[in-house]
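The instructor's notes for this session suggest beginning with a concrete chain rather than abstract definitions. Hand out the sequence below and ask the class to guess, before any prediction is shown, which regions might be ordered.
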Amino acid sequence: MSLPSSAIRSLDGPTRGSLMAVVCSLLISVTSIAEARRPDGRRLLQAEHSHDQVSPALEARMQQGAEHNIAMLQARNELLPLQSGTKQLNGLVWPLGPVPGAGVDWHAISGFVDLDPAFPNQVRDYTCSNRSYDTAAGYNHRGVDIIPWPFAWDLMDASAVDVLAAAPGQLIEKVDGAPDRSCSWDGPDIMNYVIVLHADGTIARYLHMKAGTVTTRPIGAPIAAGEYLGKVGSSGISKLPHLHFELRRSNAVNAGTIEAFSGACNTAPPANWASQRPYRDSALNRLSTHSAEPEFPTCPDTIDRPHFKNRFVAGDPITFGAAYRDQGRGQLTTFRVLRPDASVFSSWTFDVAEEPGTAEYYSGTFWNWNQTLPPDAPVGTWTFEATYLGTVSRHSFTVSAAANTVIADPRGLIGAWFEPATSGQGFDLHWLDGDVLLVFFYGHHDDGSNLFLIGTHNGAPRYGVAIDMAMTETRGGRFNALDPAAIRRQPWGTLRLTVNNCASARAELTGADGNSVLSLQRLGRTPGLDCD
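After discussion, reveal the predicted structure:
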C-alpha cells in the first residue's frame, strides 16, 4: 500500500513525522532481510552411492550358520521358547545410536525394502513409490539402509555410530573380522553381521558392521531392545558405511522379507515401529565450520577430508557447512553468523530449488559457503545459526585475535588457569596498575611436596606473543604459627607464557624440577572484566 505525496503533505506535523518513522523502519527491515545466496560447494547423496547386495552364496552362509546355532542351542536346551501367535515386533526401536548426534540425528535413509518381486528396475517401496532398488541378477533389496550423514567414512573411523538391537530376542549368529572398507559392487562377498531370533520366530539381520566391533556376547545370549550389537561399517558388498537392517519371517531358506514401515503399499505389516518416522523425514542434520571446503571421497577412495575447525583467528578463511536429510525443493533455510555480542555478521537464505537441475528430494545433502573473517573480528564465541522448517539449529566456534595484537584490557585475563589433563596444578594471573603481570604457580615437586612459584613481568601483553619471566620458589610458609622471617625465596627457573585468546594459553616451565608444557584453559572469569 502507498499514499500519494499530497496525502502525506496534508497530515499535521506530528502525524507526518510518525508516519515517516514507520516508513523508515519498514525500509530498514526490508533492507535487512537476508538475500538468497548460492552455495560454493555441495555433495548430493545419490541412491547408487550407498547400494549394497547380499549374494545367494552369502545368503546361504548366513542362513546355514544361524540354523546350525539354533540346532546347537536346542540340543543344549538353551533355545528360548518360541511364543507362537505373539507379535514380538510390535514397537521396534531405532537401530542406531547414540542419542543425540551420530546415528540418531546425523543419518539418512537411502532405500527401503523392495516390495516388487520383479526385476530389473521394477521397484516399489511401502508408499508405492520407488525409493528402493534391485539388480539385473535378481536381487531385490530386502532391508532399510541407514547411512551416517554426512561424512560416513569419518564417523566410521571414529567408531561414532552404534548398531542397536531393534527388538528383544536371542543371539543366534555373528561374524566379525571381515574387511570393512568396501567401496565397490565387487567388494569381498564376506561381511560382519549379527542375527537375532525373536520369540515369534522372526529374525533380524544387522549387516555391514565395522571389523572388531561386533558384540562379544556369546551365541545364545538374550538380547534386549536397544542393546549394543556393533558399529556401523562397510563390510561385504557395500558402497558406503551404513546399516542394512533386515527382518525375515523366519530363518528358513527364502523366508519372506518383512517391511516394518507402514504405508499405502504395506497396510498391515507383521512388524511396526514404536514411533514410525515420516517417509520424508526432512531435517537439518548438522551445522559445522571448516578451514576449507570438505572433500568427499569417490570409490575406491574411502577417506573423508572434512577439514573440521572450530577455532579461528581474525582474518582466517572459514567455510560454513549444512547437512540435511530428505531435503526438498521449496524448503527455505535462513542462515545467520552472529558475533559474540549477538550482532549479525552475515546472513543469507537458501532453497535447493534455486540450484539448477536438482531433484524434488534428496536423501542426503551437504552444502557449504565460504567467507573470510575480517582482520578486526571481535574475539570470543561466535554462532553459526540456521532456521529450517521452524527449527533453529546452532553451532559455536571461537575467534581469537591475530597474533601480535595488543590485548586491549589484560585485566580480563585475571583469574585461575589450569590444564584439564593435570588439574592438580595451575596458575593465578593478576594484572596490577599499568602493565604489571603477577603470576602465581601452584604445583608439586616429584616427591609430592608443594611447589609454589611467583614471577612478574612489565609490559603490554599481546596475543600469540610469548612473555618470558623469571620464577622464584617460596619455601618456609605454613598455615599455623606463620613466621615471615622463616620464608625463603630462591631462583627456580623461567616461565614462558603465551596467551592465545581469552580462554586458552600455553605455559612452558623450565627450572630446578625439570621441564613442563601446559595447555591452559580459563577456570573462571572475573565479573565486569572481559578481554574480548
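Then share the key points. The radius of gyration is 31 Å. Residues 1-32 have pLDDT under 50 and may be disordered.
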